[in-house]
Write a structure and sequence with these properties.
It is a single chain. This protein has 585 residues and is mostly helical. 50% of the residues lie in helices and 1% in strands. It contains 27 helices and 2 strands. Strands 1-2 form a two-stranded antiparallel sheet. Strand 1 and strand 2 form a beta hairpin. The longest helix is centred in the N-terminal third of the chain and has 24 residues. The radius of gyration is 33 Å and the shape is flat. About 19% of the residues have low confidence.
């Protein structure tokens, strides 16, 4: 971000936090006394030199030569604080004595009686301010709660913690679950064992479900993987099942309450679902999640979700569905494309895979879960790839990708994609784009308002890698667009007019110099910018757009992203080509 915008955002954050801290301080009983003393001091007719000072800063009010308050750090204030304080004043308000509290802090004053409110006839409530009490000769020391104390419930107020205690109000997120389950979790687990008469142990995954969903707070579709992991933990079965169906087999030895707790220690943190998700999915010796870690969890969904029953006899589609879901998850969370998902990324990026996994239990129709798991989205992705892969080697070359979207992409754009500068390919074959690479490209192309998409297309057009897109770089891509429009007998637009239009649309800080931050500030128009120079179909669609129709589409499905709308249209097209009812396809 630019220095100006960063400074403005930082200033707003600091101001909001200062306001928050001020109101918290103002609610303290000790603060009431300071306010009352300030009001009493202001109303007093006696000499300001003899009035009790509500805080150290009021010393400057009564000894300023002009009778007005002196600003902090002024010559009047420094001289008075050095020479003008009386012994009586220093008794309570001196800030130089050892062990004294900070000026104006809650611990620097004593607790005053609660404020009483009396109602007068014909009036609303009026606050009655009691007379100030004499301050103690020596303020009590400030007491802070221990740093490792647990969060209190919302019902615990500052008064309950004592008038001399500043309660802890922020706890950093855990980086690791507790080594042992809390007594509350142990009791809940024991109660379910007793309630379901599991004294002899758990034999099958159905018996484990209430503990996983109600106690561990994890998705219903984590039951089968956890059941398998517990068996592996106690060496009851091999780590890799011989068949997918073997995941559903009963345990050869009943899993007792103690065995389940032993596995859960150090992995389950019911008050932090993301942390539990991370430690359950990853391998024991890793601090990250790898692609293969999700395999057993996707297999469990394919075996048990009613919305995927029709895939159980088609092994190839099962594998492709799992690959698609995993690729979409890594596209969101693995921003560096290193094949690893770390805990901080899992907490930071949206949509939340942990919440989406739990939503699977709420919908028997898996198409209703649009994020990650939608079969409709998978079908569109897979069929789009299949249409381009003419030799069926499950790899795409430049000529294959040129056919994408009705030959919409320019050759210069395709050459840039296969240079792997915008995004490295995971395909092991040089010069070939694999299925996972195509998924990432498709997500970037059809939803150009996301951060990942904008970064992808920005690096596409930043030919010299200087962090800016300039006129000569845009012209390089636009020249081919003009040639293609002339071949199709379309009227062309001079590049100068296009550049002026882009400056008005994106509003860069420096005219004609577009930085990544400029697009993120105007993400609504970022996709249009990139489409004009890369996709002829999107360029023509922009020139002939109907603003009223686009507005109506947004009103019909306000929660839909550009990606959701494109998938819905493509799914309808594919279903009609197959001669099926789109609702039954």
């Amino acid at each position: 971000p630019s220095p100006m915008s960063y400074h403005s955002a930082t200033s707003d954050l600091v101001k909001s936090k200062l306001d928050e801290f001020f109101w918290e301080w103002l609610l303290l009983p000790e603060s009431h006394k300071i306010v009352r003393q300030a009001v009493q001091f202001a109303k007093s007719d006696s000499s300001r030199a003899e009035a009790p000072a509500p805080s150290p800063s009021f010393h400057t009010l009564r000894t300023s030569p002009s009778g007005r308050p002196s600003p902090p750090g002024s010559p009047h204030q420094r001289g008075i604080l050095r020479d003008g304080l009386s012994a009586a004043e220093n008794c309570e308000w001196s800030t130089g004595s050892a062990g004294s509290s900070a000026p104006g802090s809650p611990a620097a004053t004593s607790v005053s009686p609660a404020i009483t409110v009396e109602r007068a006839p014909g009036a609303d409530s009026v606050a009655a301010w009691p007379d100030p009490e004499p301050a103690p000769a020596k303020p009590a020391p400030l007491v802070l709660p221990p740093p490792d104390s647990e969060a209190k419930a919302l019902g615990t107020s500052m008064l309950e913690l004592g008038s001399k205690v500043i309660p802890r109000f922020w706890w950093p997120k855990r980086q690791k679950p507790m080594e042992t389950l809390s007594p509350e979790v142990l009791k809940q687990t024991h109660d379910i064992f007793v309630k379901n008469r599991l004294g002899e142990g758990i034999r099958n995954h159905e018996q484990l479900e209430p503990i996983v969903t109600e106690v561990f707070k994890l998705s219903k579709y984590f039951v089968v993987p956890i059941f398998h992991k517990v068996k592996v933990f106690h060496d009851l079965v091999e780590g890799t099942p011989k068949t997918k169906q073997a995941l559903l087999n009963p345990s050869p030895v009943p899993i007792t309450e103690q065995m389940l707790v032993a596995w859960a220690n150090g992995k389950i943190q019911p008050d932090d679902i993301v942390l539990s998700f991370f430690y359950v999915v990853k391998k024991e010796h890793n601090d990250w999640i790898e692609r293969e870690d999700f395999s057993i969890f996707l297999t469990a969904i394919l075996l048990t979700h009613p919305g995927l029953d029709f895939l159980r006899e088609t092994q190839e589609f099962q594998d492709r569905y799992a690959d698609t879901v995993i690729s979409r998850v890594f596209f969101v969370y693995d921003r560096q494309d290193v094949g690893k998902i770390y805990l901080n990324s899992l907490r930071r990026y949206k949509p939340s895979v942990t919440e989406t996994w739990k939503q699977l239990a709420d919908h028997d129709d898996i198409k209703m879960v649009r994020d990650y798991f939608s079969y409709e989205h998978f079908y569109v992705i897979y069929c789009t790839f299949w249409e381009l892969d003419s030799d069926r080697d499950f790899l795409l070359d430049k000529d294959d990708l040129l056919k994408y979207d009705g030959h919409a992409l320019s050759r210069r754009t395709v050459d840039r994609i296969f240079s792997e500068i915008p995004m490295k390919f995971n395909s092991a074959v040089p010069g070939k784009m694999g299925y996972e690479d195509f998924i990432r490209f498709l997500l970037c192309d059809q939803d150009r308002q996301t951060d990942r998409s904008m970064e992808y297309w920005f690096h596409m057009f930043d030919l010299d890698g200087d962090g800016c897109i300039r006129g000569h770089e845009m012209k390089y891509f636009y020249e081919e667009q003009v040639q293609r429009m002339e071949c199709l007998n379309y009227d062309t637009i001079p590049f100068e007019d296009i550049l002026c239009q882009m400056n008005d649309m994106i509003s860069p800080k420096s005219e004609g110099v577009f930085r990544l931050n400029d697009f993120k500030k105007r993400r609504k128009f970022a996709g249009t910018f990139f489409s004009l120079f890369s996709s002829l179909n999107k360029f023509l669609a922009f020139e002939h757009r109907d603003p009223f129709l686009a507005k109506q589409e947004q009103l019909d499905n306000p929660s839909f992203s550009d990606w959701d709308r494109w998938c819905a249209d493509e799914y309808l097209r594919l279903a009609m080509e197959e001669g099926e009812d789109p609702d039954e396809a």
